[in-house]
Amino acid sequence: MMRPLSVERVFLVGPMGAGKSTVGRQLAEALGWSFVDSDAEIEQRSGADIPWIFDVEGESGFRDREESVLEQLTQRPKIVLATGGGAVMRENSRHFLRERGYVVYLCTSVEQQLERTARDRNRPLLRTAQPEQVLRDLFVTRDPLYRQTAHAVISTEAGQARDVMHKILRQLREQE
Ligand code: S3P
To answer: Residues enclosing ligand 1, CB less than 6 A?
Structure first.
C-alpha cells in the first residue's frame, strides 16, 4: 500500500496554453480526486461565457468573479484545480492558492502557447492582431507572480501531458 499523500489539493497555475486543463484532468484521474477548471466554474455560475463577461464587466469584473470562485474552490478537499492564466493577478487569489494547496506552475514558451491557442475563440485577451506580443507582455508581468505563488515549476514545453502528470505525482510523493 502506498503511503497517503500529505497534500490534499493541487492547484495548477500558468499562462494560457500551458496545458493546465489537460494535465489537471489526467492528474485528478490518477489520484482519484475531482478535477475543476476555474474558468468553467465561473461560466457555470454566471451563466455567461468568458468573452461576454470581459465585454460587459471588463477584466476587473472577471477578476472579481475569479477571486470569489478561487476563494471557495481552494477549500475543497481532494481537488485538482486548473486556474485561468490571470489567476495570480490578485493578491488575495495568490494567497488562497499558496496557503491552501500545492501549487504547480506549468510553464512553456510563447511559441507553444501560440500553437496551442491558435484555434481557440474563447480567450478575449488573444482576440487581437498581435497575440504574440500580448503573450510576451503577459509573461513579463506574470512570470514572477507564478513563481512566487508556486511550490514547484514544471515545463510543459516538450513531451506529453502524461509525462508532466507523472512528474507532478513524483513531487507530491516527496512532500512530507
Ligand atoms: C486569462 C486566461 C484564461 C481565462 C481568461 C483570462 C488570462 O484562462 O481565465 O480568458 O488572463 O490569462 P486559460 O489560462 O485557461 O486560457
So the answer is: 16, 39, 50, 84-86, 123-125
